[in-house]
Write a structure and sequence with these properties.
The longest helix has 16 residues, at 101-116. The protein has three domains: 40-301, no CATH class; 307-569, Immunoglobulin-like; 574-722, Alpha Horseshoe (Serine Threonine Protein Phosphatase 5, Tetratricopeptide repeat), CATH 1.25.40.10. The strands form six sheets. Strands 1, 2, 9, 10, 11, 13 and 14 form a seven-stranded antiparallel sheet that branches. The relative contact order is 0.07. Mean pLDDT is 84; it is low at 1-43 and 296-302. It has 25 helices and 28 strands.
Length: 723
């Protein structure tokens, strides 16, 4: 191990700094001697393909002019990679977590734009007007669509802005198909005018008495603001054949501000809206990056570290399937203070199905504290982290991010996984191991790669010594009695393309109808690379299933392993039913989600987490009285939780307990501050109770938060009239 010292934890204290295994780079010593380069004013407009795509397609709507200028001044791919990483970090709303929600959302928007707005046109959806504003501004809070014979197809998108960022409190964007077909274009009251929203034939058709429908002062005002007779006729068609809201939107992008006098302010607003994403970031960092990029290169060069990793799906004796994984980072940095050596790792898991839907997310902290003698052992060992989590049947992609929270280094890996139902005949992939413990305790807790009393220590790089024994573990699901009695297993070892060794065994010899473990001494295997194929054969010798793995035999010394295997509850613990229930819920299987979440709650009814999980599935099933029965004891016991009060409020309203609902909703607001939707519901409860004054107060508060609520505005006007 090579030591790398970092910044001392505290002056005048004995400290050994940060130790980095396998890397001899002393960043703390290099930085003071770096000479900063002069700024290069030349723009590198010719870029490699991936950077061309990034700057001109992926971030074209959100990158600021300053960031764009700096990016074109960068001189090599390493600088561009570092800048791109910094670009996303500047926008990360939760920089202390492994996930960058802004980046994930941005690429989700691009995917959505290409999928939805690119239909029926000869180019990708991100290039359309709707795609541009969807990517830049996000999903609108409300969309109105107009499709009638009187007008061209129209969509109006409503948004709420953030005045603190210099944005309009609320605004709307109108998109239309200029000739009734093709791409939806962004509408401008000045450049397009109402006439562009109405088909040519409709504009030319007789519209009786337009001067009678529009008052003289209205026509005069339209003329003052550059609206000609064709626009006036189209405006009348919109107003009297479709609706006042659409007619007003044809003149103004500002809700509640109608009339031709708002045409110019709307044009200014449209120009500003495109730059709204720029207001969310302070782009001064880009110039700092350009000025100090030599320092940045050194500091970032060890930020990502490589790894070796494996993930396996194994069925527990309880019948549950678990994803078991092992990851070996190439580098493990250890910090020190006095005579203690420590680090803190965080493993973040993300499991998605074939459609990209998130099925499971989890985080786990792994603190390590070592004594000096343990540190010396670790220096000569391969650090391996193992863990597992339960999973429902399906095909998934697993993403694992491992972070060193002390040094901010990270590594990651991705793996495709298939989880069977366990009923149909199927054979799992193999797990190769150098060591197996057959007497592992299986009582109150389990560890990764533990199957009953069998603890497997999997190989990560599939390399063994010639003196070792190779352990081959796999599972077969859905074996019939006939297959158990007459089926066979064939173990074939290949050296290159040639068969090196082959052996057949009856399934009965293993004494197990699901878990299979075969031991192969390697003393007769010369050093080299081999392939092991395990095949499931019928009694007629027909190959039904097979699995292959490569491994190597060497005579060179291998490092010992320092294994950190996280301890997990026994498979019958209600925690697993809770996790699986949420996975079924994420997948859309309501019935299985209900059964699993009910099981978790039944086993541990004192857990608020399990109770909340169960009631989240009861609410869509309209079992609101049951929700109250489950959650009320927690509220009576003094539990303070926003979700608890919100669920109780909703359930109480649904069963007619309006006063209780108001009390619960008010408690929920005390935890999160005023929320428009909850205030609206409180107003509805007061209205049903006949307390119009309190209903009015709740709705007025709601409008202060979100002014664009036409339904609430109408209800307030009705209450005021009754006074």
């Amino acid at each position: 191990m090579t030591k790398r010292k970092g910044k001392p934890l505290e002056k005048n204290k004995k400290t050994c700094g940060v130790y980095k295994m396998k890397i001899g780079l002393c960043i703390g010593l290099l930085w003071p001697f770096i000479i900063l380069p002069a700024l290069n004013p030349k723009l590198n407009t010719e870029l490699p393909e991936k950077y061309e795509k990034w700057i001109k397609e992926e971030v074209v709507y959100i990158i600021t002019p300053i960031e764009r200028e700096v990016f074109f001044k960068l001189e090599n791919d390493q600088e561009r990679d570092l800048f791109i990483e910094e670009f996303w970090q500047q926008r990360d709303p939760t920089p202390g977590t492994p996930r960058n929600e802004f980046k994930d959302e941005h690429y989700r928007r691009i995917e959505y734009a290409n999928k939805v707005f690119g239909r029926g046109i000869p180019f990708k959806g991100w290039r359309t007007d709707r795609g541009k504003y969807y990517i830049a501004l996000g999903r609108p809070s409300h969309v109105e669509r107009f499709i009638t014979s009187d007008i061209n197809p129209i969509e109006i998108w409503y948004y709420s802005g953030n005045p603190k960022l210099g944005q309009a409190p609320s605004y709307r964007l109108l998109f239309f198909q200029r000739h009734g077909t093709g791409e939806f274009e962004l509408y401008s009251p000045v450049a397009d005018g109402p006439k562009s929203l109405v088909p040519f034939t409709q504009r030319r058709s007789e519209f009786p008495g337009i001067e009678k429908l529009l008052k003289p002062e209205e026509l005069k005002k339209m003329e003052e603001y550059y609206i000609d007779e064709r626009d006036a006729r189209a405006y009348a068609i919109l107003r009297f054949n479709v609706g006042l809201d659409l007619a007003e939107a044809s003149l103004s992008n500002i809700p509640g501000r109608s009339g031709p006098e708002y045409i110019i302010p709307s044009t200014i607003l449209l120009g500003e809206v495109a730059s709204y994403p720029h207001k969310k970031v302070d782009d001064d960092y880009a110039y700092e990056f350009l000025e100090h990029k030599a320092v940045v290169e050194v500091s970032y060069s060890v930020y990502y570290i490589g790894n070796q990793a494996k993930a396996s799906v194994i069925q527990d004796p309880s019948g549950l399937f678990f994803v078991n994984y092992i990851i070996v980072p190439e580098v493990l940095s250890i910090d020190s203070y006095a005579d203690k050596y420590f680090t803190n790792l965080k493993a973040s898991l993300h499991l998605t199905d074939r459609e990209g839907k998130t099925i499971y997310q989890g985080e786990r902290s792994v603190p390590l504290e070592l004594k000096e003698n343990e540190l010396k052992v670790l220096e000569k060992s391969s650090f391996q982290l193992c863990d597992s989590f339960p999973v429902i049947p399906g095909d998934y992609t697993l993403n694992l991010l491992l972070e060193n929270m002390v040094t901010k280094e990270f590594t990651s890996f991705e793996k495709k996984l298939s989880v069977p139902d366990g009923e149909n005949l199927q054979m799992s992939p193999m797990v190769l191991a150098r060591k197996v413990n057959r007497d592992s305790p299986y009582s109150q807790s389990t560890r990764a790669y533990q199957v009953g009393d069998l603890q497997i220590y999997p190989l990560v790089n599939n390399t063994l010594l010639q003196k070792d024994t190779l352990f081959i573990f796999f599972q077969i699901y859905g074996l019939t009695q006939a297959m158990q009695a007459r089926g066979r297993l064939e173990f074939t070892f290949y050296s290159g393309e040639k068969v090196f060794q082959r052996e057949r065994k009856d399934i009965q010899q293993f004494g197990n109808n699901r878990d299979f473990l075969e031991e192969i001494p390697l003393q007769k295997f010369p050093a080299g690379t081999y392939t092991i194929e395990v095949s499931l054969l019928s009694h007629m010798g027909q190959k039904l299933y097979s699995a292959r793995e490569n491994f190597s035999v060497t005579t060179a010394a291998l490092p010992s392993s320092w294994i950190v295997a996280q301890t997990n509850p026994h498979a019958v613990d209600p925690y697993y039913a809770y996790v699986l229930g949420n996975q079924y819920l994420n997948k859309g299987d309501v019935q299985k989600a209900h059964d699993a979440l009910a099981q978790a709650y039944t086993k541990d009814p004192d857990s608020l987490e399990y109770a909340m999980g169960y009631t989240r599935i009861l609410a869509p099933l309209k079992e609101f009285q049951r929700v109250r029965e489950i959650l009320t004891p927690f509220e009576q016991a003094g539990q303070e939780d926003f979700s608890l009060f919100f669920q109780l409020g909703r359930a109480s309203k649904e069963v007619g307990k309006l006063e209780e609902a108001i009390t619960y909703y008010q408690k929920a607001l005390s935890h999160r501050g005023n929320i428009a939707e909850i205030l609206n519901t409180i107003g509805e409860c007061y209205l049903e109770l006949g307390n119009n004054n309190q209903a009015l107060r709740a709705w007025e508060k709601s409008l202060e938060i979100n002014p664009k609520q036409e339904k609430i505005e109408k209800m307030i006007k009705q209450l005021i009239k009754k006074k």
